[in-house]
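User: Just a sanity check before I run the rest of the batch. Below are the structure tokens for the first item. I only need the designed sequence back.
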């Protein structure tokens, strides 16, 4: 269950990271409120997952999910580069997350 909670925390991190782009420096009300809500949810879920999972593993997976999701949405929504080297580096992050999951009991 802790891994599912951690995955949801990572997805919420994607929400606030992408949301930051739409706040226009926190000058737009609704994107700002959504971004702050995503921040709160993400940190709360991370805290819940940390009751069971090791800190280093959970934090690395949380930021990895956030990094991958944000990079993918940057490509899909914002027209950012999908160069092969960039995609290969994203794949390395995925491999790291999978490796941490396989190496961590719980």
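Assistant: Here's the designed sequence for the first item:
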């Amino acid at each position: 269950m802790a891994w599912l909670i951690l995955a949801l925390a990572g997805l919420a991190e994607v929400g606030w990271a992408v949301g930051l782009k739409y706040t226009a420096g926190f000058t737009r009300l609704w994107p700002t409120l959504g971004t702050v809500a995503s921040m709160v949810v993400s940190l709360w879920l991370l805290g819940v997952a940390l009751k069971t999972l090791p800190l280093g593993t959970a934090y690395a997976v949380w930021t990895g999910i956030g990094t991958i999701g944000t990079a993918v949405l940057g490509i899909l929504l914002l027209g950012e580069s999908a160069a092969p080297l960039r995609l290969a580096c994203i794949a390395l992050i995925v491999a790291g997350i999978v490796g941490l999951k396989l190496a961590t009991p719980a």
